[in-house]
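Here is an idea for our session: we take a single protein and study its fold together. Which protein we use is up to you, so please pick one and set it down. Once you have written the record down, we can walk along the chain together:
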Amino acid sequence: MMLALEKGVSLIGPGPTLCRITVARTEGLASAIGLWEYGDGEVGGFALTGPGSTGNAAHGIHLSYLSAAAPHDNRGIRMRDLHISQFGSYGIGHQYGGAYETSLRNITIEDVGADGIDWKIRFGLGDAQDVSAGVHMTGIIVRRPGHRLKKGSVSGLGLRGRAILSDIEVTGIPENCAGIRMEPGTGEVDEFRQPAARSVLSNFYIEAAADNIPARGLVCFSSGPMSISNGFLRGAVIETQSQTKSPTYFDDGPQISGVTVEGAHSGASFTLGAPRTQLHACRSISEKHYFEEKRGNLTSGQTWLGLPAPATKSKHLWVLKNHVVLRAGRDYTVADDGIALASGAAASDLFMIVLGTVTAIRIRAPYCVVNGGGSDAYHLTAIDKASSDQTGLQTGFLAEY
């Protein structure tokens, strides 16, 4: 590492706009800043910039241990007011040990090669008693993670261990990656990792890098109950998945409430793959594009309505003129990058193009509950049960409102 801090040593600047640490080369470096058996210290108030998000595997800030025999109690860690960018691996990585009374706040991470934040509660000696407690993350912004790896378990924020997350924004999720992953645990003797069980996530926004790519906004593994609330996802889906590596925890899915998914083109807006997942007052909204004179994208006589994503990839597409559905082939034709109208628009017209969502909710696990919420009219299926042996309860879910 370029700079190593031990317990009780702080590194504090006047603010990320006033103080910048630039790392020109990372050959032979695991990280720019290493925090070893760290605790009772503060890191913040500066920008940390690496040499690029590809071509290296260095972390921005890395928390780890000095000896495998140490207890690994990372206590009293405070990170705040940071801007981290251009590293080939994690922006911030907590790789080993427990975390106690730890806070991350007002942190922006941009253009990194792997996860924005990779937070593991992990031990090499199978010590299942070391835990995560008092961990809070708030005001976290992650933009464009996964430049180097671009697949698999890469996420804007990956969490293991109990934590409280609030005011989180992850945008620019690449194809086949995730915005936030609430991770499962592992129970092997030499590789014990705590799951994200009993964690709380609230007030979050997640957005895919582009339309029509298979991006997973939020992935929750059923390695213990957790609470998810008050979120919005655009162009990315929510999945709950049954755990496979957490034998010490019940196979319980999360409770998700007050979450909206807009423009899920890569699958169902909500896929309930973990037993006992609960959805309360959640919505699935199809992607809509508006054209009118006061928006500055429609003029008299205009016959072309451009779209930011290939329109032909949408299996369900509607074009509405002044709230009336037009007929394909007669009133318009579909091209790769927009809609060609058969006749010119009037200056007073309002056009809406809808790229419909196939399924609002897909239930693939038993004992799931869907209560309240709804989907708009541009869905092929509101609720899909993958097989007849799945049990569940749906009450008050309003389709086609």
Notes: The mean pLDDT is 87.
